[in-house]
Design brief:
Shape: elongated
Structural class: mainly alpha
CATH topology: 434 Repressor (Amino-terminal Domain)
Radius of gyration: 20 Å
Number of strands: 0
Number of helices: 6
Oligomer: single chain
Largest sheet: none
Order of helices and strands: HHHHHH
CATH architecture: Orthogonal Bundle
Number of domains: 1
Strand content: under 5%
CATH superfamily: lambda repressor-like DNA-binding domains
């Protein structure tokens, strides 16, 4: 019976989150990995909007009324069902929730 090499074990049992993502979604730069990363970013924005709305003690309907949009639009954003432009996100955070949107870029 053959024994597995250490590198084979690492493939089967990833030790880091990056090894797991490489195994499950492909290496960085591949189409599958880019798709996963885009969905993950949309989910993070959705959670940001949802948690911020809840901290402001607003329902989706109340936020929608403040922004003069349909409740379904807010729901769609909170479910990460659509891409959100920065201008839209700023409007939600600043006009709808009374907060301030800060975007930070690091190298």
């Amino acid at each position: 019976m053959k024994t597995k090499k250490n590198s084979d074990k690492r493939t089967l049992n990833p030790k880091t989150i990056n090894e797991h993502f490489d195994q499950k979604y492909g290496k960085t730069g591949t189409r599958n990995r880019a798709s996963f990363e885009q969905k993950a970013e949309a989910y993070m924005v959705a959670e940001l909007v949802k948690e911020s709305r809840k901290k402001a003690h607003l329902t989706q309907e109340q936020l929608a009324q403040k922004l003069n949009v349909n409740r379904a639009y807010i729901s769609k954003i909170e479910r990460a069902s659509s891409d959100v432009r920065i201008s839209t996100l700023r409007r939600i955070i600043e006009t709808g929730l009374g907060g301030k949107l800060n975007i930070n870029v690091e190298f």
